[in-house]
Amino acid sequence: MPSIHPKQEQASANAAQNQVLEHLNQLVMNEPNLKGAIAGISIRSAKSGEILYQHAGDVRLRPASNLKLITAATALSALGQNYQFSTEILTDGKLEGNKLSGNLYLKGKGDPTLLQEDLDILAKKIKKSGVDVIFGNIIADDSWYDDERFSIDLTWSDETYYYGAAVSGLTSSPNKDYDSGTIIVKVSPGKKVGSKAEISLYPANNYVKIINQTKTVQKEEKNDIGITREHGENVITIEGSIPVTAKPIQEWMTVWEPTGFTLDLFKQSLAKQGIHVIGTEGVGKTPDAAALLATDTSIPLSELLVPFMKLSNNGHGETLVKEMGRVRYGEGSWEKGITVVKEELRKIGVDPSSMVIRDGSGISHVNLISANDISNLLYSAQSQAWFPTFLHSLPVAGNSERLIGGSLRNRLKNPEMAGKIKAKTGTITTVSSLSGYIKSRSGEELIFSILLNNLMNDAHGKPIENKIVSLLYEY
C-alpha cells in the first residue's frame, strides 16, 4: 500500500479543519435562536494564540459570569495563590483574673469562608486565655471594606437571593460552598396533614424572623412552597403547601446586613463557652491600640477559587475585587478594586482599554467585553506561574462530581469528550456565555469564547454553545 506524503496528510488535516470552521459558520448564520441576537465567538490556537475563527470577535458584549475569568486571573496575579483572609478578636480592656474589663472586638477582614465553627474556635481561644466574664461591649468591626454592600448595577430584586448577597468586611457562610451573607432555610412537611410545615435555619440564629404561612397537605397535592425576604429587612416569609410525604426543601436566602448577623453568631459562640457578657453589642471600629487575642485564617485563594469558579459564586467575585483594592490602595471598594483588575490585566498581557468592567461577578448588564479579549486572556494566562491553579478552578464538562464538573457537570456528557473541556459558564437574563479550553479529537488544544447576547430566552444559549464546542472537538 503506497504511503501518504506528509504534505498530503497536512492538506487533508487542513481540509478537515476548514470544514469544521465552515460548519461553525453555518451554525451561527442559520441558528433560529440567534435571529435578532448577537453572537461573539473567538477561537484561538492554545499553542500560538492565532485566531482561527471569529464572528463579531471584537464586538463588546455582556459576558455574564465569564467576567469571573478576569476576576480569578487578576486576583491570582495581584494577591497570589497562597493569599488568605483573616478574622481577628481584639480588646481595649484588661484581664484581671477571669474578668475582662473592656470591649471585645470582632474584626472582619473580608473572609467569605468564615463559618459558625470558626467563630466557635475563636470563642474557645478567648475562653482558654482565661476569660469567663466580659465587662464591656461586643463590637463588630466591618471597616476593612467600605460601606457599599451591593455592586452598582445589582437590581433590588436580586439582593434577597444568594447570588445577590451583600458584601461586608465581616460576613459568614452557612456551609463549605461559602455563600457568604446567606442562611439556609429548610422547609419540611409537618407531622400531619393540616399542620404547618416545620422550618429550620442553618446556622440557627436570632437575627432572622420567620413568618410561617404554610400548610401540610395530602401526598397527592401540589408542592408550591414560596420563600421570600422583605427588602431591607430580616423577615423571611414562607407560604404555600407541602405534601406530607415530600422531601424537605432547602433555599439559600441572603441576610440584610451580614455584619450584624455574624455578630449574632459570635454571641452564640461565646455563650457556648460559658462566657458571660455584661454589656451590649453594636457595630464600630477597633481602636488602633487594641490588643490581639485570637486570629482565624481562611483557606488559601487556590482553594477558594474552586467554589468560586465551579459553582459560579457571585459573592466571591465581589469580595476579591474589594480585597484587591484594600491590599493595594488601602480602600476596599469596587472603584479601587477594579483599578487593580485593569492593572493586572495589563501585566498579564491583556489591554483593558476597550472593556467596561463594573463588578467582579458579571451580574451587571453594563459589563462589556469582547470574545477576542476573553480568548486572549485565556491564552496569556497559560504563561503565568499560577495557571495550573486557574485551570483547575474551571468546571470540567460532563464530570458529575459537583466540585469538579461544577456548572458543566450536566452538559457535554459524551464519554469520548469527558475531561477534555474546561470552561466557565455564564448566564444572566438574555445572555449566555461559555469560554475556556478544549482538547480536540486530533489532540489540538484550542481556546474558545462564546458570548451570546440579546437572546429571547437565555436558556436557548446553552444548546448553541454545546453545538459549537462539539464541532470544535472535531477540529
Structure description:
The chain has a five-stranded antiparallel β-sheet, sandwiched between helices. A five-stranded mixed β-sheet has the order 16-8-6-3-17, with helices on one face. With 475 residues, it is of the alpha/beta class. 30% of the residues lie in helices and 24% in strands. It is built from eleven helices and 20 strands. The chain has helices spanning 6-30, 67-79, 116-128, 258-272, 301-310, 314-329, 334-348, 371-381, 387-392, 402-405, 461-473, and strands at 38-45, 51-55, 86-91, 94-96, 99-101, 104-108, 133-135, 138-141, 182-188, 198-202, 209-217, 226-229, 235-243, 249-254, 276-277, 281-283, 291-297, 421-428, 431-439, 445-453. The model has no long low-confidence stretch (mean pLDDT 95). Helix 1 (6-30) packs antiparallel against helix 11. The chain has three domains: 6-82 and 302-473, Beta-lactamase, CATH 3.40.710; 86-148 and 259-299, D-tyrosyl-trna(Tyr) Deacylase, Chain: A (3-Layer(bba) Sandwich), CATH 3.50.80; 182-254, no CATH class.
